[in-house]
Amino acid sequence: MNILFAASEAVPFAASGGLADVIGSLPASIYNQGHECRVVIPLYRAIRPELRAQMTFLTNITVDVSWRKQYCGIFTAIWNGVTYYFIDNKYYFDRDGLYGFYDDCERYVFFSRAVLEMLRCIDFRPDIIHANDWQTAMISVFYQVFYKYQQGYQNIRNVFTIHNIQYQGSYGREVLNEVMGIPLYHMGILEYDGAINMMKGAIEAADKITTVSPSYAWEILDPYYAHGLDRILINKQYKLTGILNGIDTHLYNPEKDECIAKKFSADKVGGKKACKEALLSELALQEGDEPVIGIVTRFVSHKGIDLIRYVFEDLLKLGYKFAILGSGEKIYEDFFSEMHSRYPDTVSVTLGFQPDLARRIYAGADMFLMPSQSEPCGLAQMIAMRYGTIPIVRETGGLHDTVKDNGNGDGNGFTFRTYNAHDMLNACERAHKCHTDSKAWKALIKRAMRCNYSWHASAGEYIKLYQELCNQNTDL
Question: Is 0.85 topped by the overall pTM?
Fold first, then answer.
């Protein structure tokens, strides 16, 4: 099969979150299982010069953005065996940052249309176009409205993945004509609650809708999680499925990681103690055997930071130390900075994001706290387990699918169900009690490290989905 992934970011070229990790790893895993898999993203200013130097210019075309015709350059490069295409337009993409501009609607309408126009001039005809999140949601809509019956475009199937339903690409109805150029009689595909909603359009037009974990696929049918899209999703359950994300087990490998103080494995976990000692020294935390909780996250409300704030000093009274790395809303940054100033020997706070320090926290902490209000999949808990750091999580989305509570002595972490600070505190108390039993704790570390969350299994699930759609093609 030929699969074309379309996304707004991909590691190592441009990244702002988990979407980039997925697009940087999943296509390569599918390619390694014998299928031709390619990726297309915008050519952002943020792409590093050494990566740009590896690109080859293919051609340039014009792309319709409603009544305007815009320049579109097409570049290509190969990374991990996968061919990448880059859509170039300096007006739209030569900016500092990826998102958050007044014309994001127009920028990604252009990109979505450019992906389809690009197919006329590259040596690749996809059986499947796999779009991701609202920035590429218009691909399946444009395909249905303009391309489905054009020569060379017949029987292309569209898959759309919801990585985070909170961001939907919702704009005023005027964009239908002024930006998208879609006739009014097709407005029903995109109109939702009086606005033009790109994600709703993809839910209507795509052949399959996927989410990044099985639990999240059920959760987004509930108004509490769906951010208003539950009404349309309930009617489209027949094409909705959840496939758990994976992690790059070559990139995150404590046996080979050069960033950590000492390498270790599930069979020989002794190196983890050296990593903890090095982390305490680096962060100027008080030495000792007390457990260290790692937190590597964005400081935003849906990550459960309010729960941590509410019982933070109770956690300190239990005897925990904290290694905190992240950035986000000022109220949370100020809170953690204040806790560091009040408890400098037991609380370390680093604002911003430092990938190497994140690795050392994953390797050196004893527990990893993720009390998320919602978590479509979550990668951090999988990375933490890869490094033998025990996750403490709320049972939501991918956290529910990857972490089993250790209450019966056979789990890989500690969980709590309700979004409640004292339920979280109870899970932390149970983790602390287990940590005092060195034999049980060592066994728990080994169980966590032996969990397999590589992309290989997830890629196999996507391949089954693609084959199902391609078999439908042959029946037409």
Answer: yes
